[in-house]
Write a structure and sequence with these properties.
Distance between the termini: 59 Å
Number of helices: 6
Order of helices and strands: HEEEHEEHHHEHEEEEEEE
Number of domains: 2
Shape: globular
Number of strands: 13
Largest sheet: 8 strands, mixed
CATH architecture of the largest domain: Beta Barrel
Helix content: 10-25%
Oligomer: single chain
Radius of gyration: 22 Å
Strand content: 15-25%
Length: about 350
């Protein structure tokens, strides 16, 4: 297994050397206008490395290629690795998304990751890794997983390594990387040129004649993710210019800062998580957030529901359309988080590029 690990790392190094350079897309500043992006070392010696992490955490469990559990500050912390999305391992579940099918390669990647971290163990102790966050504000997803990069003791970025080896696409569905966007773009291009992993036409091909195998539709997913990343970049630029007026719905700090400024109107950017019809006839639009205690609710009063009827809130949640939108209004802080009353249907708009989304029904 140790020989296999060395071979894997050698392949990654060769891939970085043999392919031509790629012109990267511009990277934005980050949702919620972050005050600081973490420092990183320049590329040298043909490979990218962070500075060795100052603090290491024990790996408790490797679930699959992009989900790892570590012990941190006295608690078991579930990590969701940023900018990557390995294929789903085989569980036999009945309801599986067409965009994230369970695949043979997903199973192989999960087993590879488990062996990879087992090989990093020393002196009978579990492997230890560092964590790197894009901004000073640590964030979680809707499953309470900490969003971060895993950095090995020598500075290797494990998230980036997954893309270099073709075990994951560059997953910019939730925005271009604030840490090493250019490196992710180049790594994916080189892995595709070398036909590694998910980019190999033979990957997930049925082994027996007549059999059908699940394959992930990257030809449709990549343009969708890029459109979302472009929308986030546009918001990041606006938020960097005026962080009080342009608010990230997934950032409690950004929401609190703008609410406490008591401005007559702000514009919030985000995704709809759920829509509720309340008992009093009003409607609530709940925005997606990893912090449920500080999420944003946009209220549509009972007398205004009819005026908002043409807004297709559920339609903008579909796959392969632009899911990000903006809403303007007065933001207030409450005991349940943050609230805004929708002043009317004109306060809502879909983020550009729209990519098939139409908030107003035709």
């Amino acid at each position: 297994m140790r020989q296999y690990l060395l071979t894997t790392l050698l392949v990654a190094s060769l891939v970085m050397l043999i392919a031509p350079p790629v012109e990267p897309a511009p990277a934005g500043a980050g949702p919620g206008a972050p005050e600081r992006a973490p420092a990183r070392q320049s590329k040298s010696g043909g490979g990218f490395r962070h500075a060795p992490p100052e603090e290491l955490f024990e790996v408790a469990r490797v679930i699959d290629g992009d989900t790892i559990h570590v012990y941190r500050q006295g608690r078991l912390e579930k990590l969701r690795l940023l900018s990557v999305d390995t294929e789903e391992r085989i569980t036999g579940r009945a309801n599986v998304s067409a965009t994230k099918p369970e695949t043979v390669f997903g199973e192989e990647c999960a087993l590879w990751a488990q062996e990879y971290f087992a090989e990093l163990a020393e002196d009978g102790r579990p492997a230890r890794v560092g964590l790197l966050f894009p901004t000073e504000e640590e964030r979680r997803d809707v499953y309470d997983r900490l969003l971060c990069h895993v950095v090995l003791p020598d500075g290797t970025d494990f998230d980036l390594l997954l893309v270099q080896l073709g075990k994951s696409p560059y997953f910019n569905k939730y925005g271009n990387s604030l840490i090493c966007h250019e490196e992710f773009v180049a790594a994916q291009a080189k892995a595709r040129k070398a036909k590694l992993g998910i980019w190999n036409p033979a990957t997930n091909r049925p082994k027996t004649k007549g059999a059908r195998a699940a394959r992930r539709p990257y030809d449709r997913l990549l343009p969708w993710w890029q459109a979302r990343a472009d929308a986030i970049d546009a918001f990041r630029r606006a938020a960097a210019a005026d962080p009080l007026l342009h608010v990230d719905s997934e950032s409690p700090e950004s929401l609190a800062r703008s609410a406490r400024a008591k401005l007559p109107e702000v514009e919030v950017f985000g995704q709809i998580y759920r829509v509720f019809d309340e008992d009093d006839g009003s409607r609530t639009v709940l925005f997606r957030s990893g912090d449920k205690a500080h999420s944003l609710r946009v209220r549509i009063a009972q007398e205004d529901v009819r005026a908002h009827a043409a807004l297709d809130f559920r339609g903008v949640r579909r796959e392969f359309v632009q899911n990000f939108l903006y809403v303007k209004g007065r933001l207030v802080e409450t005991s349940r988080g943050f609230e805004m009353r929708s002043p009317g249907p004109d306060a809502w708009r879909v983020a550009e590029p729209a990519l098939g989304a139409a908030l107003v029904r035709r």
